[in-house]
Design goal:
This protein is of the alpha+beta class. Helices cover 36% and strands 30% of the residues. The chain has 8 helices and 15 strands. The strands form 3 sheets. Strands 4-3-5-6-7-8-9-10 form an 8-stranded mixed sheet, with helices on both faces. It has a 5-stranded mixed sheet with strand order 12-11-13-15-14, with helices on both faces. A hairpin with a 4-residue loop joins strand 7 and strand 8. The chain is globular. The N and C termini lie far apart (42 Å).
Length: 259
């Protein structure tokens, strides 16, 4: 099923409303943050409220679509479509008062992502796009990504301290991280992928990325003419995005091709 203008409008409104609600809760100093899997993996009252707000609209406007949310929403649909929700991506940043966070959604059909939308409340920015929907920033098309080797680009990524210390998959990360001109770890996968789609970051790679952290940004990068793929290496599933040459080089390094 093709993406409709109504899909684009709805996705934009969902993330803008969710981000505004989360920001208001934070401003009221009512976050009630608690750890999920560790100190740096948090959930707050804002995450829960923002996801509930998105689900409320989708229940009313897309009752036959499936739903999957980071904070527990899960519903099978009958339409073949599924909305994937990250109400606050970058919750540690958000709870710390750092504005590198966003609200994100994706619309998928089976294994194919159709559309992504990300709202950055601090700058009033909403980025929307998909493989067949040219990516826009506040309604204006972003420049198409120019091909480039990874050595000429920055790369955003993440490596948890425990992963660095003793995980066998760190060898893959190290091979890929040796290639870019510089590395950035900023704490929000969807914000990073917005950066790739809009040309502010060169490329991106990360392992074990759940759909809510991958699909919204994957759609945006694809809509800007970039390449996205997933790679199996050292027992981990890696997600890679960027210009075609850089993505190919990162994927090869993660697999250890030629090593």
């Amino acid at each position: 099923m093709d993406v409709t203008p109504e899909d684009v409008t709805l996705a934009s409104e969902l993330v803008v409303e969710a981000a505004a609600l989360a920001a208001r809760i934070r401003a009221e100093d009512d976050l009630e943050a608690r750890a999920k899997t560790g100190v740096s993996d948090l959930v707050t009252a804002a995450d829960l409220a923002a996801e509930a707000r998105i689900v409320e609209r989708l229940d009313a406007e897309r009752p036959h679509d499936g739903l999957l949310g980071e904070e527990g929403t899960a519903r099978d649909g009958s339409s073949g479509r599924r909305w994937v929700i990250d109400p606050v991506d970058g919750t540690y940043n958000f709870a710390s008062g750092f504005d590198y966070w966003c609200s994100a959604v994706a619309l998928a059909e089976g294994d194919r992502v159709l559309l992504g939308a990300v709202a950055h409340h601090a700058t009033g920015t909403v980025v929307v796009g998909g493989p067949d929907v040219p990516t826009t920033r506040n309604g204006r098309p972003v420049a198409r990504l120019e091909d480039a080797p990874v050595a000429r680009l920055s790369a955003a990524t993440y490596a948890h301290p425990a992963f660095i210390v003793d995980h066998p998959g760190f060898a893959s990360w190290r091979r890929a991280a040796a290639l870019p001109a510089t590395i950035r770890m900023l704490g929000s996968g969807s914000m990073d992928l917005v950066g790739v789609a809009t040309g502010r970051l060169g490329c991106w790679f990360q392992h074990s990325t759940p759909d809510w952290d991958w699909l919204p940004g994957q759609a945006l990068v694809a809509g800007a003419g970039g390449t996205t793929e997933r790679v199996e290496a050292d027992g981990l599933r890696w997600s890679v995005a960027g210009p075609a040459t850089a993505a190919r080089e990162l994927a090869a390094a993660l697999r250890g091709d030629g090593a």
